């Protein structure tokens, strides 16, 4: 079993279940049953299953098709979710189609169609129109012959037109695409039309009666050029609009003075009357040419017009029509003191100058522009020849010469007084439209675009600046953190280097001296006095190492270098000696002028000098002073102790390393150490150091 058969069985099963649910156990199995059901809709869903020959396909995608069998014809529409075997169906195919009637739409919906085999088209009968009207051939494809009496445009769908086919006084309407009859002279032609008989109206026209949907129109006898028995429209006199609309075909000859829209023209006759003609064909005549017209008269209460008309160029020129000249008036003549519009200007040639405010570019409305003439809005209609306005753009100033058309409805029974909608102007050629000036570059629309673009640019710049600022701030913070970490690392390295130098220059050398003294004492174990001397010297050296180590540990545990004032830094550096003599400090050197190494050296030197004055000089009062002079740092320590006396100052050989350490520190700064003692015993030790890292010419006197 094939997949298509499975689908077919499934559809039948679904339809059967639906039929049971809707209390309808009948499946329509022939075309006559389906056709009869479409004429008597009951609102109940009814399934169908037909097998027959495809007698008609409306479109290539088979949206509509007709099936015929021995009982007749059935028109069917393909459902949007329908399944089809093969690539499609063509005329003469034998198929099996199934679906349903929903009880509301007269056209059955096909849900599945299966191609069975190729067959032959059933013969098409030629039938009289009267039998079509009686319904004998509903849904059948037939041929009908007759004369086309009337052609008019479908006002619901402008793409369609209706032909009135008449045979022996019986008429039926034939809906067809206007494109199919474009440029043909139809009225009065004897034709044969092949098509399907619709038992209901086309589209929404349910009560138009039975119609014949054509698939082919054959002209058996063409229409006469201008039948002599058709009365002229000029013969219509003193009749009301209802009487005019009931008249049959009339003819007219005149010169085309304006054309617009799809199939409308204004024609001036020999008696200087303006006739608005609505053609059945979208093929329009040229302006300035004389034409013969046949159509149905109607009235707008001002003029007699023709609708459902067809035309042809006149074989000869009527000199009386060609001699009519229309003066060119100013557009303001259109306005009237008594009413808004002056109907007598209908068909007159006028001049207008204004600024283009609107330009329609819709496919079926190209050629419409809105003109601002001194504050009055005027419509320009060049839809018949949109190329006339091809260079016109919004904002430009134009001068236009054209025919003024009064836009008014034709009379209808339900509109006693047709509404006057206004005037519009129809230019004839490109020469009727003169561009006086192009729009300035700086227009309101462009200003809005520029402002919008500037606003967008400003917004983008602000956002971009915000992003850049955030990135800069983030990068700056990162760099600062990196710099701080670098400085911290550098400070740690510098501090470690300084401590290493301190330990190397003091403890390391002192301990080396202790080692030498102990070695010497061991070698002099037989010489007791000399051994004792070396041991004493080693003991003093170890004591000096202990003091130096204590000072280093004190410096590490106390952040004296972090003080912003050198006086406070010196006080904190001599904390271990705080219970000693009275110490007065006046160090007039800004901390910012000294590097950390220089400040540390100064603190160690001052502390060593104060320690010497307290321990060895027995001083009770000590004064510390310092200042900058010509870029050099000079400071001194003065005490009231016993002084140095006449004996040489003890040095490392005697186990005293203080002054030696001071000299070594000063030597790094290319400095100088001097000391003096007066007869009263007051001692002054002065230190001079060069601090090139901080060059200054400012003096800070003592």
Tell me the layout of helices and strands.
Layout: H1 3-21, H2 31-39, E1 46-57, E2 64-69, E3 72-84, E4 93-101, E5 109-118, E6 125-126, H3 129-133, E7 141-153, E8 160-167, E9 170-177, E10 190-198, E11 211-221, H4 241-246, E12 250-260, E13 264-269, E14 274-279, E15 290-299, E16 304-313, H5 319-322, E17 328-330, E18 349-360, E19 368-373, E20 376-381, E21 397-408, E22 420-426, E23 433-437, H6 444-523, H7 528-557, H8 566-573, E24 582-587, H9 596-615, E25 621-629, E26 632-639, H10 658-668, E27 672-677, E28 683-690
Helix pairs in contact: 6-7, 8-9, 9-10
Word description of this protein:
It is a single chain. The chain has ten helices and 28 strands. The protein has helices at 3-21, 31-39, 129-133, 241-246, 319-322, 444-523, 528-557, 566-573, 596-615, 658-668; strands at 46-57, 64-69, 72-84, 93-101, 109-118, 125-126, 141-153, 160-167, 170-177, 190-198, 211-221, 250-260, 264-269, 274-279, 290-299, 304-313, 328-330, 349-360, 368-373, 376-381, 397-408, 420-426, 433-437, 582-587, 621-629, 632-639, 672-677, 683-690. Strands 6, 7, 8, 9, 10 and 11 form a six-stranded mixed β-sheet that branches. Strands 1-2-3-5-4 form a five-stranded mixed beta barrel. It is elongated and about 170 Å long.
Structural class: alpha+beta
Q: Give the helix level as a range of percent.
A: 25-40%
Rg computed from alpha carbons, rounded to a whole number of angstroms: 60 Å
Number of strands: 28
Count of helix runs = 10
Sheet-strand content, in percent, reads: 25-35%
Integer average pLDDT:
78
- Would you identify the regions where 5 or more consecutive residues have pLDDT less than 50? 19-24, 693-702
**Major sheet: size, sense and barrel closure?**
6 strands, mixed
- From the spread of the alpha carbons, the general shape counts as elongated
Distance between the termini: 123 Å
């Amino acid at each position: 079993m094939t997949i298509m058969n499975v689908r077919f069985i499934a559809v039948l099963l679904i339809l059967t279940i639906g039929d049971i649910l809707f209390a309808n156990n009948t499946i329509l199995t022939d075309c006559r049953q389906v056709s009869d059901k479409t004429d008597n809709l009951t609102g109940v869903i009814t399934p169908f299953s037909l097998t027959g020959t495809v007698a008609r396909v409306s479109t290539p995608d088979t949206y509509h098709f007709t099936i015929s069998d021995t009982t007749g014809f059935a028109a069917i529409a393909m459902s949007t979710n329908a399944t089809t075997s093969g690539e499609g169906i063509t005329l003469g195919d034998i198929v099996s189609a199934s679906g349903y009637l929903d009880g509301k739409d007269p056209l059955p919906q096909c849900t599945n169609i299966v191609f069975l085999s190729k067959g032959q088209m059933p013969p098409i009968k030629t039938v009289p129109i009267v039998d079509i009207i009686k319904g004998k051939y509903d849904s059948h494809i037939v041929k009908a012959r007759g004369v086309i009496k009337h052609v008019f445009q479908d006002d619901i769908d402008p793409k369609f037109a209706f032909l009135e086919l008449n045979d022996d006084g019986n008429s039926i309407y034939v809906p067809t695409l206007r494109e199919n009859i474009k440029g043909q002279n139809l009225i009065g032609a004897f034709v044969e039309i092949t098509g399907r008989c619709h038992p209901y109206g086309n589209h929404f026209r349910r009560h138009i009666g039975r119609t014949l949907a054509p698939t082919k129109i054959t002209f058996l006898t063409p229409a006469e050029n201008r039948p002599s028995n058709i009365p002229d429209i000029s013969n219509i006199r003193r009749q009301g609009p209802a009487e005019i609309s009931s008249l049959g075909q009339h003819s007219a000859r005149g010169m085309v003075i304006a054309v617009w829209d799809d199939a409308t023209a204004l024609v001036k006759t020999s008696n200087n009357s303006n006739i608005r003609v609505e053609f059945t064909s979208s093929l329009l005549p040229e302006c300035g040419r004389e034409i013969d017209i046949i159509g149905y008269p109607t009235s707008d209460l001002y003029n007699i017009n023709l609708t459902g008309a067809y035309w042809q160029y006149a074989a000869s020129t009527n000199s009386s029509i060609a001699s009519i000249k229309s003066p060119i008036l100013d557009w303001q003549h259109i306005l009237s003191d008594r009413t808004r519009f002056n109907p007598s200007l209908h068909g007159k040639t006028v001049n207008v100058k204004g600024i283009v405010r609107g330009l329609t570019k819709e496919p079926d409305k190209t050629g419409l522009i809105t003109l601002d003439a001194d504050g009055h809005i005027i419509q320009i209609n060049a839809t018949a020849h949109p190329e006339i306005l091809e260079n016109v753009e919004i904002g430009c100033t134009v001068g236009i010469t054209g025919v003024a058309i009064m836009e008014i409805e034709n009379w209808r029974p339900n509109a006693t007084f047709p509404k006057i909608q206004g005037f519009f102007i129809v230019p004839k050629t490109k020469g009727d439209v003169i561009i006086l000036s192009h729009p300035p570059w700086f227009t309101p629309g462009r200003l809005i675009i520029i402002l919008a673009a500037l606003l967008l640019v400003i917004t983008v710049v602000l956002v971009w600046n915000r992003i850049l600022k955030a990135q800069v701030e983030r990068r700056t913070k990162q760099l600062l953190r990196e710099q701080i970490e670098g400085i911290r690392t550098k400070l740690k390295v510098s501090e470690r280097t300084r401590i290493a130098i301190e330990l190397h220059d003091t403890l390391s050398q002192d301990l080396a001296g202790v080692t030498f003294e102990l070695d010497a004492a061991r070698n002099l174990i037989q010489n007791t006095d000399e051994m004792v001397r070396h041991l004493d010297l080693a003991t003093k050296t170890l004591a000096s190492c202990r003091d130096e180590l204590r000072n280093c540990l004190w410096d590490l545990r106390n952040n004296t270098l972090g003080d912003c004032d050198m006086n406070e830094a010196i006080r904190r550096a001599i904390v271990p000696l705080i219970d000693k003599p009275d110490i007065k400090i006046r160090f007039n050197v800004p901390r910012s002028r000294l590097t950390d190494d220089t400040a540390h050296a100064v603190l160690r030197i001052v502390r060593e000098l104060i320690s010497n004055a307290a321990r060895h000089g027995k001083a009770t009062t000590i004064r510390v002073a310092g200042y900058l002079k010509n870029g050099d740092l000079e400071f001194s320590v003065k005490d009231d102790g016993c002084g140095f006396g006449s004996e040489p100052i003890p040095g490392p050989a005697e186990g005293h390393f203080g002054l030696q350490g001071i000299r070594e520190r000063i030597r790094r700064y290319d400095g100088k150490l001097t000391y003096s003692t007066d007869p009263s015993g007051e001692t002054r030790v002065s230190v001079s150091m060069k601090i090139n890292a901080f060059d200054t010419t400012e003096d800070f006197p003592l």
